[in-house]
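User: Quick one: structure for sequence A, then sequence B.

Assistant: Sequence A:
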Amino acid sequence: MQVKEIMTKNPEMLAMDTSLSDAAKKMKDLDVGIMPCFTG
């Protein structure tokens, strides 16, 4: 098995400047407990 076989193909991400309340809402809407953040 390879990592690419189990990874999400188009993951949802949060920008580093996303407010905490917006991040919490998105995580609740998606029913996830962790989300990657990006810069740029």
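Sequence B:
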Amino acid sequence: MGSVPRRIAQVIIVINIPISTDEKTKNILKKAALTCPVDKSLSDSVIREVKFIWG
């Protein structure tokens, strides 16, 4: 948690994609995840850590 007033300071996101795929498909899926409207609605002060786990 951040300082007063209480705010979210950091979001850690782990995306598990249990398939093996080529680089082109990985890039398409990563781009979709990283340009999500929900992500864009967060304050710029929120630290985002996104990790992809493939196959």
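The chain has a mean pLDDT of 89. The chain has one domain: 10-54.

User: Thanks, that's what I needed.
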